[in-house]
Design a protein that fits this description.
The protein has 173 residues and is of the alpha/beta class. 53% of the residues lie in helices and 14% in strands. A 5-stranded parallel beta sheet has the order 2-3-1-4-5, with helices on both faces. It is globular, with a radius of gyration of 15 Å.
């Protein structure tokens, strides 16, 4: 059962607002904040882009698995999960056992608008990023929508999304 200090895991596509909203929620609930990508970058000394380029996606996914298994506190943390982290076999169930899993859902068009000039996203360094975003969204949709709570973020402010998460966490405490 979720309690006041249970972790909150934010999942969803890159560009859905997980890090920005996660920091806001953590401050409001007086919890620690962790971004899985940043924690992996600290541990390896390499950017996510460099990890993908040098070691490949499979190695990166194994680092994400390590982070979930032992790279963050078991309680009192808000964790922004990399977009593909929850697609690793068995991870979504593990996250649900550890805490509350919330998907921040944004449409492919909104994500494209947010990320079209961002060169730090290795999966979008392709000829047609708009098409790639749609493909990734389609392939991950069922996993994302299996979260404990799904919030459609397309027409909500950061504060509005954060408020929904905070209310859900407090109602479960």
């Amino acid at each position: 059962m979720i309690n006041k200090a249970a972790n909150i895991y934010l999942i969803g596509m890159m560009g859905s607002g997980k890090s920005t909203i996660g920091e806001h929620v953590a401050r409001e609930l007086e919890m620690n904040f962790f971004d899985s990508d940043l924690e992996i970058e600290k541990k390896t000394g390499k950017s996510v882009n460099a990890l993908f380029a040098d070691d490949g996606e499979e190695k990166f996914r194994s680092l994400e698995q390590e982070f979930i298994d032992s790279g963050h506190p078991d309680m009192n943390a808000v964790i922004s999960c990399g977009g593909g982290l929850c697609t690793i076999d068995g991870i979504l169930n593990k996250l649900k056992q550890k805490g509350l899993v919330i998907c921040l859902w944004a449409s492919p068009q909104i994500i494209f608008e947010r990320l079209k000039d961002d060169r730090s996203r290795p999966l979008l360094q392709v000829k047609d990023p708009r098409l790639e975003i749609q493909r990734i969204c389609d392939s991950r949709k069922d996993t994302y929508l299996s979260a404990n709570l799904v919030i459609d973020c397309d027409h909500l402010s950061i504060a509005q999304v954060a408020e929904k998460i905070i209310n859900k966490a407090r109602n479960l405490a």
